[in-house]
Amino acid sequence: MTGQNNPQRPVRKILVDIGHPAHVHFFKNPIKIWGKHGCEIIVTSRRKEIATELLDSLGIPHKILTSLGGGVIGLGKELITRNLKLLKLISLDKPDIMVGIGGIFIAQTGFLRRIPSIVFYDTENANLSNLITYPFTSLVVTPRCYQAWLPPWHLKYPGYHELSYLHPNHFQPDLNIAITCGLDPARKNFLIRTVSWQASHDMVDKGWNMDLLMKTVRFLDDHGNVMISAEGQLPPEFRKFEYRGLPENIHHLMGHLTMFVGESATMASECAVLGVPALYAAFTGRGYTDEQEKKYRLVYNVRDLDWSVIKATITEILDTPEHTWNSRKDKLLADTIDVAEFVADLTLNYPDSIKQFQNTFSENRAS
Fold this sequence. Notes:
By secondary structure, the protein is α/β, with parallel strands linked by helices. The chain contains 14 helices and 12 strands. The protein has helices at residues 21-36, 51-57, 71-93, 104-113, 127-131, 175-180, 210-221, 250-254, 265-273, 287-294, 307-318, 323-335, 339-348, 352-366; strands at 13-17, 40-47, 63-67, 97-101, 117-120, 139-143, 154-157, 189-194, 225-230, 259-262, 278-281, 299-302. The strands form 2 sheets. A 7-stranded parallel beta sheet has the order 3-2-1-4-5-6-7, with helices on both faces. A 5-stranded parallel beta sheet has the order 9-8-10-11-12, sandwiched between helices. Helix 5 (127-131) links the parallel strand 5 and strand 6 (139-143). Helix 1 packs parallel to helix 2.
């Protein structure tokens, strides 16, 4: 087990490694909590989509180490470059502990410098990145619904990544902000999400084709107001539907949607915890979207990217009474925890906190 490299003093200096916009949201509340405890926070960032812009908008100082590499070769080059830069940084700044999502960089550099690393993750099909991360990290932390192999040095918790920033203790969707993002209060509102499929866990996957996207847009357009959030540039025929709100405000819009449809598991889960039904249509699944379908019926997982299947699922959601979603959300929140508080406490009190949370979660499950 690599977890033997425990800090020799109380955790006062925390390095947070950011590689994706979702990581910014996940860590923004723990960063606030650590700041209240007088900790020094070092944030290292990566130019991918709007990650650095989100950090800037939140007023979180950060050090950009690399940009997203394209393809297997590009990601490999980025791995080497980022590890070298991170090694130099931690040699100078000497953090007590490092945290990140996915955690390739902090796990490998932490192992070399004997600095403990906590990796939070929820993506089962990231086989390559997990293979080169898990053996080197001090602790792997996943939602309880995680379905893939984990090393012995792991901790599972009752919740989802999205509850670190969308738990009602930390977020309430604002209707006025949602309207500035394109919401039409007089109509049904739909958000479609398309992704670029450039992450390491996406190498064997591919997204929607233009025909499927066109049919989905036209069908939803007949029922209400359609917006599209896309990684990369949309083709000209879809530009009028493009989400034009501020990136940091999109969750206010999502909280007031009628439905989410798309190929982003993260955004499907975000809608689920906000009580908005989500159709997640992609070839590969996630343990958390599977659970959100089986236990709470807030996500509808579609593996067959066929228009007839997607149309039938959209119709089923539209035919469900609106009050149903709130009662399902209440059940989800009753079964889960405030993940931001959990992340903050686990890190601040590491390694003693591991046993504490193992006992707490075991007792909760038994009851």
